[in-house]
Structures are given as C-alpha cells and as structure tokens.
Amino acid sequence: MFTRLKEDIDTIMLRDPAARSRLEVLTCYPGLHAVMFHRVANACWRGGFHWLGRWISHWSRFLTGIEIHPAV
Questions:
Q1: Domain around 41
Q2: Predicted pLDDT at 69
Q3: Is 70 exposed, middle or buried (0-12, 13-18, 19+ CB in 10 A)?
Q4: Cβ neighbours around 19 below 10 Å, total
Q5: Domain-located, residue 2
Q6: Phi-psi region of 27 (alpha: psi -120 to 50; beta: other; left: phi over 0)
Q7: I need a surface site. Which of 7, 12, 55, 70 has the fewest CB within 10 A?
Q8: Nearest CA-CA partner of 19 in 11, 35, 37
Q9: Which spans in 1-72 are helix H?
Q10: 47 domain residue, yes or no
Q11: How would you classify residue 29: left for phi > 0, otherwise alpha for psi between -120 and 50, otherwise beta?
Q12: What's the chain's average pLDDT?
C-alpha cells in the first residue's frame, strides 16, 4: 500500500512542474487524496462491504470534490 502511494507521489513529482515537494503533493493534491480514498473504498466493495465502500466514496467526494464509484 505504501509502495503504491510512494509511486503515485513520484509520478506526480515527475509530471507536474508545480509540485515542489513530496509533502506538498501528499497534503495539497485532491486528486491524490481521491485515489487513496478510492483504493480503500474499492477494497471494501470487493470484500462485500458495499455500504462501507459507498460511505468512504461519499466522504471522499465531500473532502475532495471528486467522485469515483467504489466498484470501478
């Protein structure tokens, strides 16, 4: 899980010239936050915890403004 997060941060650092530090990316990039929440929601959905997956997805949308269905 943390390896994947590190890879995501490294990719953002590589592709976004405005990204100045890993801490900035981790704390200030809503796209990264949405992906992190989605991975948790998707794991819940695949595990049969559909309500929990939807609930996490809704919290993610509230916090980031980005909606990704947990089944995707």
A1: 30-72
A2: 98
A3: buried
A4: 15
A5: no
A6: alpha
A7: 7
A8: 11
A9: 2-15, 22-28, 30-46, 50-64
A10: yes
A11: beta
A12: 97
Pick the closest to residue 22 from 35, 5, 40 (CA basis): 5
- Residue 63 lies inside a defined structural domain of this protein: yes
Average pLDDT over residues 30-48: 98
> What crossing angle do the helices spanning 30-46 and 50-64 adopt, rounded to 10°?
170
Q: What is the pLDDT of residue 1?
A: 73
Kindly state the percentage of the chain with pLDDT values over 90. Answer: 97
Question: Which residue in 71, 67, 58, 70 sits closest to 31, CA to CA?
Answer: 67
Residue 55 has pLDDT above 80, yes or no: yes
